[in-house]
Design brief:
Strand order of the largest sheet: 1-2-3-7-8-9-10-11
Shape: elongated
Low-confidence stretches: 1-51, 66-74, 532-537
Strand content: 15-25%
Radius of gyration: 28 Å
Number of helices: 16
Mean pLDDT: 87
Helix content: 25-40%
Largest sheet: 8 strands, parallel, barrel
Number of strands: 24
Length: about 625
């Protein structure tokens, strides 16, 4: 179905894709003023959009989705024929504050501890089914924790009593980390930074006894970001978590001036610039502490969803930079943040222009749109499922991941959002690479051993060697396995070096890659792919000087052979062969295990088999 440009004006590119006229410019005018366009009205805005190559790309994406919307409901089956991203953050905020998401059972006995554990397992299983790869678990709630801290007391959510440990050797954070890693997921410690709870709570009282400056409002009590002791204190907490636990990231929440805080007085150095400097000092202290301990741990935060006013779209006096002193885009530029999760809990012109602003100013780092999934619950808002799915389509098209706030509203399948998430993420995805690390070497196999061994039944075992913490397993019906195709990814962030399948479909080929803690991935170690049946495990016969060719190659019109290492590196190419040839000279090869492939006149490559040279 075509969309006529003449019809765009009456439609006015209305929400969810924009305001009046629908065009938007990412450039910020000086002093809040925008340069006058050479055209007026909607066409002027469209002209501004098309001036930028990035905005031309964005406009075409949005126009494409308008076209789909004009066809009533988008058919996700059509969408899923497109390539799936291999690298994408798919996250959920898992809230422990007031037991909102987890836990629902207090850990007051061995039996209740097991119930609490099972609650988390069930949640994580639902994430795994939807191919979620990042869990943002609230570890510091309100100056209280869900782990045994030497700095702050236990939060009420674990046992029902603040300051009380669950006992029996149970550490909820350590348990959560193990369970996430078992499912191939990253887990980030979500840290509520400035809020310290109501002034009567144990956490807040402990903070005040230590002499920190605290202000209390109806919504709770908050650390004063200008207190010079705050950066080191919060860095100490994040350092404790990083040092004690195999965490994948630190996610800073509420790293800003609180709601209700008086506006800058311009007295005694209280200016907007000074406030931004105070918040940035906290961010820098935490970053430096965490990275000094484990440089691969991702630093992220959840800023207000609008960074600042745009030249044509107002933030309505509530934005990250100017209202609450979050210079989040500057933190990306300086490398203080590896990721951002802007809380974009808006629709229409309050969402799409601002999502483009985040993308355009991400400095080659990962920006993940925070989705207001809770608005799908009629008790929380009046959003429709299409409001949410459209945001997910557009954000993915712009190279952004997505994060649901919060877990309950996703897993309870509000308006079918969980069902959609499962279909939307039809393939696994690896989290984006964090800057750092080095090139990773491919896995190897034991001498004389293949990567894949088939049993007498339909079972199969993969074995390999390596020195990285994670491995990714791929499978495909074509050889060699294309590891750039997300649909071939079978296991992500697998921690072992052996994998057994009780039943394997005929015609599948397998490969494995190594991955370091930064997410850097190695080349693939490919399975040997015999030209005949996949279950044929016999090696090609040789006497150390001559390699016998199987009779079947005569039927394949082979004109060139390639002898490769087990890692797929070509070692010797033999050309000018005929189908009458029955053997190859291998006298120049050293003892070891090799694989042999052949190419036809049409350049189609076949894997013929493996052979071992023993002398």
């Amino acid at each position: 179905m075509k969309v006529s440009l003449s019809k765009l004006s009456p439609v006015r590119l209305s929400p969810p894709f924009g305001g009046v006229g629908g065009g938007f410019s990412i450039r910020r005018g000086v002093g809040g003023e925008a340069a006058s366009p050479s055209f007026g009205g909607a066409w002027g805005r469209l002209h501004n959009i098309l001036n930028s190559s990035f905005m031309r790309h964005l406009f075409l994406i949005i126009l494409g989705f308008l076209t789909l919307q004009a066809q009533a409901q988008t058919n996700i089956a059509d969408y899923l024929t497109l390539p799936q991203p291999k690298r994408e953050t798919r996250a959920v905020w898992l809230t422990t504050l007031s037991n909102l998401d987890w836990p629902k059972t207090y850990a007051t006995s061995k039996e209740n501890i097991e119930k609490q554990k099972q609650e988390l397992r069930d949640i994580l299983d639902s994430y795994q089914k939807a191919h979620i790869n990042t869990v943002l678990l609230q570890a510091r709630v309100r100056a209280a924790t869900i782990y045994p801290s030497e700095i702050e007391p236990w939060d009420h959510c674990i046992t029902g009593v603040e300051g009380r440990a669950p006992g029996f050797g149970y550490d909820p954070l350590a348990f959560a980390i193990d369970e996430c890693h078992r499912r191939g997921m990253e887990i980030h410690a979500w840290i509520a930074t400035i809020p310290v709870g109501m002034k009567t709570t144990l956490g807040c009282r402990t903070i005040m006894k230590r002499g920190f400056r605290v202000r209390s409002y109806a919504t709770g009590s908050y650390l004063d970001p200008a207190d010079p002791a705050v950066p080191g204190y919060l860095a100490h907490i994040c350092g404790e978590i990083t040092r004690k636990y195999d965490i994948d990231g630190i996610n800073l929440d509420y790293i800003r001036y609180p709601d209700g805080w008086p506006l800058p007085s311009y007295r005694n150095g209280d200016t907007p610039e000074a406030r931004r400097a105070h918040i940035t000092a906290i961010v820098r202290a935490i970053h430096d502490e965490v990275k000094a301990i484990k440089p691969w741990v991702k630093m992220s935060c959840s800023p207000i969803g609008k960074y600042s006013d745009l030249s044509r779209y107002s933030s309505k006096n509530f934005n990250a930079r100017d209202r609450v002193a979050q210079e989040a885009q500057e933190w990306l530029r300086e490398g203080l943040m590896d990721q951002l999760y802007p809380m974009q809990y808006f629709r229409g012109e309050n969402y799409y222009p601002f999502i483009a602003d985040w993308v355009e100013n991400r400095y080659s780092r990962d920006v993940v749109t925070g989705l207001g999934t809770y608005f799908l619950d009629p008790r929380q808002g009046n959003w429709r499922l299409s409001d949410m799915t459209r945001q997910m389509y557009v954000s993915r098209s712009l190279g952004m991941g997505h994060a649901h706030f919060r877990s309950y509203f996703l897993t309870s399948n509000q308006q079918g959002i969980y069902d959609f998430e499962c279909r939307f993420n039809s393939s696994l995805a690896l989290p984006p690479v964090t800057k750092g690390g080095r090139a990773v070497s491919a896995p190897t196999t034991e001498s004389m051993s293949p990567l894949v061994e088939y049993g007498s039944d339909r079972g199969m075992t993969m074995r390999w060697k390596g020195n990285t913490p994670y491995y990714n397993i791929y499978a495909s019906r074509s050889y060699p396995v294309d590891i750039s195709n997300a649909r071939n990814l079978l296991y992500a962030r697998y921690a072992g070096t052996q994998l057994h399948f009780s039943s394997v479909n005929e015609g599948l080929y397998f490969a494995v890659t190594a991955m370091d803690r930064y997410g850097n991935e190695s080349p693939a170690l490919q399975e040997l792919a015999p030209l005949s049946s996949k279950k044929t495990t016999a090696l090609l016969a040789n006497d150390g000087q001559s390699l016998a060719l199987p009779a079947m190659v005569k039927e394949a019109d082979i004109v060139e052979y390639d002898i490769k290492s087990m890692q797929g590196t070509s070692l010797r190419t033999i050309t000018n062969v005929t189908n009458r040839q029955s053997a190859l000279n291998i006298s120049s090869l050293s003892p070891g295990i090799y694989q042999l492939t052949g190419r036809t006149k049409k350049r189609k490559e076949y894997s013929i088999g493996a052979f071992v040279i023993k002398r």
